[in-house]
Structures are given as structure tokens and as C-alpha cells.
Amino acid sequence: MEGALAIGAGLAVAVGALGGGIGQGIAGGKCFESIARQPEIAVQVRTLLFITLAFIETLTIYGLLIAFMLVGKIG
Amino acid sequence: MIFGASYEPLFHIGPVPVYDHVVAQWLVMIILAVVCILATRNMQVVPRGLQNFFEWVVEWCYNFFGGALGNEHAAKRYTPLLATFFLFILTSNYFGLIPGAGTIHGFVPPTSDWNITATLATIVFFAVIIVGFREQGSHYLAHFVSPYWPFLPMNILEQFARPLSLTLRLFGNIFGHEMIVAFLVLMAPFLVPMPLQALGVLTGLIQALVFTILATSYLADVVGEGH
């Protein structure tokens, strides 16, 4: 039972970070593309990028919270 | 550990236990109040020092959040609420950067407890409903059946999903950051946690901004087109 909890805690972060990582990579890459095309809007794009990254990160954070709860159950 | 139930309360007021995070929240409120009183105590026409800084902060909040609300009337009315959210959450997040935070009682970022982020999200939840009725009257109820009446359950569900995601986003980020720093301090206490603490400065600002921007967009939905 404890082993399953530990595996679950690891998977919660790993799978959560996988999706979030891909999403953040796409968002960041598109941001650089748009700044390279049009450097004068860099400030606005960067602000939007940070907010977008925070949204994507939230989903990974949900996984992290679940992992903390599972690790707390192992005790 | 995780939902703040297992650690000991600092002290009791009557039958009510008082935890670290609540004391930290009081400290944040006192700091904000004292700094604001100091800034506005001896106001000059040509601002200097603290007053100058706070005028810049207020103007920035008005332009940023008020601009997102859409119209002048709503910006004047609701920017104070949003700016309060922003300053309170920002100060709370930065509370974890004080040396000794986490080990000394009463020095934890209040936003790393889900009770406090849930309180903030609940304020947003009721603010949206109250602002909706205040600005649009009974016409606000039409929002719930837009675009068609079969969407009624989904619109109601959305209203309740908002505070949940607001709560968990802020709490998860700050709490996760605190836990990771704690693990690193446990493993390598010297210099190694420093880059993560520096990242915490960025995280704290961005999370305060994200919470407030979301609250702004929820309010902007219901303030209508102006008069």
C-alpha cells in the first residue's frame, strides 16, 4: 500500500509536469517567434506570456498538491 | 500537514484556536496600514519619497486593473477592491522571504494556507454577484441563461468552479514553493536554496498579478457597457 502511494505521488508530479512542460514550451516558443517578428511589442507579449505560463503552471501545481497529500499519507 | 490541520495553534482566543497563518495575516495588514498611513500623513502637492512611490502604485493599479474593467465609471468604483487584493497578496507572498520565515512562529506567508486563499476567492465570488446586481439590476440574471437556457447548469457550475480554481492556484503555488525550499534547506542548507528564493520573488509577483487579473476579468464580465 505504501509503495503504491509512493508511485502514485511520483506519477502525479511526473505526468502533470509532462503536459505542462509541453504546453509551456509551445507558449514560450510562440512568444519568441512573435517578438522576433515584431520587436516593438516585446513588453506586451512578455506580460501576456508570464500570465499564460502561470495558468499552465497551475495544472502542474494541482499534481504537486496531490503528490504532497499522498506523501503525507505515507507518514 | 498539507491542509493545515495537524500543526499546533499558537494560542487560543476563548474557544477559537489561532494559527501561525492568521497571525502572519494580521502582521501583513498592520504593515500595509502603517506604511499607507506614513505615506499619506504629510501629503505634499509635489510628492516625494514614500508618497511618490505610492502615487505611482495607485496610478499603475488604476491604469492596469481599471483599464481592464472597460469603462471609467466601473474603474473608479472597483479599482480600490482589486488594488487591495493585489497589495495584500503581494505582501503576503513576500512574507516568506523574511529570514527566519517558516521556523519562527508567526512568520509564514499567509497565502500558503488554503483557508486564507479560500477567503479571498470567496470575496471575489460574492463581489461578482453583488456587482452584477448593482450594475445591471435583474438583467444580471440573463447572464445565467446565455447564450441559451440549456446552458443554465453549466453557467451555475462555472460560478462555483471559479473560487475553487482561484483558491488552489494561489495556495498551490505559494505552498509548493515553500515546501520545495524547505526540502532544499533540509538537504543543502548553504547557498543552494538561494536561486529558488530568487525565483520566489518572481512567483510571488506573478501569482498576485494573476489572481487580481482573474478577479478583474470576472468583474469586467458583469459591469456591463457603462451608462
TrEMBL record, chain B:
CDD domains: ATP-synt_Fo_a_6 (cd00310). Keywords: ATP synthesis, Cell membrane, CF(0), Hydrogen ion transport, Ion transport, Membrane, Transmembrane, Transmembrane helix, Transport. Its main location: membrane. The keyword Cell membrane applies. The chain crosses the membrane at residues 23-40, 81-102, 114-133, 170-192, 198-220. GO terms for cellular component: plasma membrane; proton-transporting ATP synthase complex. It is a multi-pass membrane protein. InterPro entries: ATP_syn_F0_a_bact/chloroplast (IPR045082), ATP_synth_F0_asu (IPR000568), ATP_synth_F0_asu_AS (IPR023011), F0_ATP_A_sf (IPR035908). GO terms for biological process: proton motive force-driven plasma membrane ATP synthesis. Signal peptide: none annotated. PROSITE patterns: ATPASE_A (PS00449). It holds the Pfam family ATP-synt_A. It is found in: Cell membrane; Membrane. GO terms for molecular function: proton-transporting ATP synthase activity, rotational mechanism. Key component of the proton channel; it plays a direct role in the translocation of protons across the membrane. Belongs to the ATPase A chain family. F-type ATPases have 2 components, CF(1) - the catalytic core - and CF(0) - the membrane proton channel. CF(1) has five subunits: alpha(3), beta(3), gamma(1), delta(1), epsilon(1). CF(0) has three main subunits: a(1), b(2) and c(9-12). The alpha and beta chains form an alternating ring which encloses part of the gamma chain. CF(1) is attached to CF(0) by a central stalk formed by the gamma and epsilon chains, while a peripheral stalk is formed by the delta and b chains. PANTHER family: ATP SYNTHASE SUBUNIT A, CHLOROPLASTIC. NCBIfam families: ATP_synt_6_or_A. This is ATP synthase subunit a. The lineage of its organism: Bacteria, Bacillati, Bacillota, Clostridia, Eubacteriales.
